[in-house]
Structures are given as C-alpha cells and as structure tokens.
Amino acid sequence: MTMIYDLLLSNPLSSISYLLLLISILSLWFKQEIKIWGTITAASLVCGVISNRIDIIGIISIVILCLLYHAINSINFILLVRTISGALAVILSVMLAAHLIPGFNNWKVVDSVSLTETSLPYSMYLNMDKTLVGLAILSLGFPLVKSLKEWAFVLRSTLPIFLVGLIVLSSVSQIFSYTQWDVKFPDLFFVWALKNLLFTCVSEEAFFRGFLQRNLFKILREYKYGNILSLITVSILFGLAHFAGGFKYVILSTIAGIVYGYAYQKTQRIEASILCHFGVNTFHFIFLTYPALANM
Using CA of residue 47, residue 21, residue 281, residue 89, what is the dihedral sign? Predict the structure, then answer.
C-alpha cells in the first residue's frame, strides 16, 4: 500500500496540482472570494496543464460551467435565461462527473488492489473534472458555515440522522450480501480520506443536495408534500448515478441519498449532508468489506 505514497512523491507537479485544488475547496469555508479560491484554483490548473492532468478543452469547459452557475444565481438575468443556464449547467455537470468531457487525464493512484481477501479489487482516481463541479457550485455565493456556533448546530443536528442512517445502511448492505464485517486500516486510508471528503463527498453533495434538491424544493414548495417529493426525487437520481455498481448499489445509494438529503433539509446546511456522506463512507471503508464482497 505504500506504493501510493511513492507514486505521489514521484510526480510532484501532479501532486501539487491536486493539493492546490484541495486547498482551494477548503478556502471556501474561510472566504468565498474569487481572488482567493480563484487564484489557488488557477495555480492548480497551471500545474495540471504542465503535468498533463488537464488541457485547454478541460479549462474551457470549467470556465463555461462557472459562468452558467453564475447566471443561475444572478438576479440581473431574466427567469428564462436562468432556467436555460440551469438546464445547461446540469447537463455539463453530469458529463464532467461522468468523465465524458475530453481534456482531463484523471490520475489513477490505486490500481485494482484487494484490500482484504473477500473484497472486490479497488481502484482510486483523483478526479479533477468532478471535483471542479463541486467547487463551481459552492464558490459562487453558496451559504457555508463560518462560525463555531454554526458548526456546533450542524454537528448536533446531524449526529442522530447519521447514526440512524448508518445502522440502516450497514444492515441492508449485509442483508443484500453486499458487504460483511471486515475491520481493517490500510496504509492508503489518509489519502483515501482526503480524496473522499473533498473530491467525492463535497462534489456530490454540492450537486445533488446543494443544487438539485435545493432548487427542486424552491419549485415544489407551494405544494403540500413538496419537501418530501424533492427529497425522494433527488435521492433516486443519486442512486441511479451509481448504476455502475449494480442494482444492489443503486438501492443502497438511494437510501443513502435519503439520509444525506434529510440531513440537508433539516439543517439547510450542505455541511450536514457532506459529514453524513463522509461518515458513512469512512465506516464502510474501515469496518465493512470495501468496496464490496467479491462473491456478491
């Protein structure tokens, strides 16, 4: 497992590119000013270009995405322009997250490694395209927690939801024979954790809860069950987005989407769904078969 650290050290420009992207995301929780996150992201992209992780097509696609999300949030544009911008932003975001836009050379840092004897082989990519989608959404005025008092509220409100969700998900996962108890702590955990939190959980929650669920609720809030409908709809979409893992994984991801979506709905804080998401993934990684049983 130490090979992952050797790989990161042997490709310093690529490592710096992803490290700067990570710092750019973290900076949003201090100040959402373009001169801060924009400068750090630009430096990340420059290193990415030099190290062949991204090219001009990839950069253009991200600039367009940022402009679309800016148009959605701008009160200076008429509703039609904002609606069209929203539709285009969804299409482009999905294509970027699915790695369908050329211009990105995402770095595979773990290649088909079985973490334990009973688990399927696991590969890990550092995905710049998907990560930049989350950054584009959260950087443009999205309300983020800034004070210790707000963090205390989020943690206090999220913990019961997380614990119930964790019990349900781990139980259903084992009923499906998708996982079993399999305690481990691989050397790659710390790289996995940083990648999973800031590149996976932040990006997925920004798009599904921060953008889709938030805006669908705005559309449906006049209806009696608009909050439930928006939660269920986006959770199903979240489940379907994980179709590559098979039918069982779609069901588990849909249930997980309900947990994360409810945490966001209750607190109106994206941090709640991010923490739930990361907590579930971390529990799965350490205590259950990861990513799934080889003979499921």
Answer: negative
Spatial contact of 292 and 245, defined as CB atoms under 8 Å apart: yes
Which tokens hold the place of 240? 């379907």
Backbone angles phi, psi at 246, to 5 degrees: 100, 170
How far apart are the C-alpha atoms of 286 and 261, rounded to whole Å? 24
CA 246 to chain centre: 20
Instruction: Indicate whether this model's pTM tops 0.85.
Output: yes
List, for residues 188-217, the tens digit of each pLDDT value: 999 999 999 999 999 999 999 999 999 999
Structure tokens that stand for 136 in this block: 């584009």
Q: Which amino acid is at 271?
A: E
pLDDT for 212-233, tens place per residue?
999 999 999 888 899 999 999 9
| Pair of tokens at residue 171 | 């139980």
Q: Which residues contact 161 (CB under 8 A, 6 or more apart)?
A: 259, 262, 263, 266, 272, 276
Distance CA 157, CA 202 (A): 19
Torsion, Cα of 284, 201, 228, 74 (10° steps)? 180
Partnered with residue 125 across adjacent β-strands are: 108
Q: Write phi, then psi, for 110 (nearest 5 degrees).
A: -135, 130
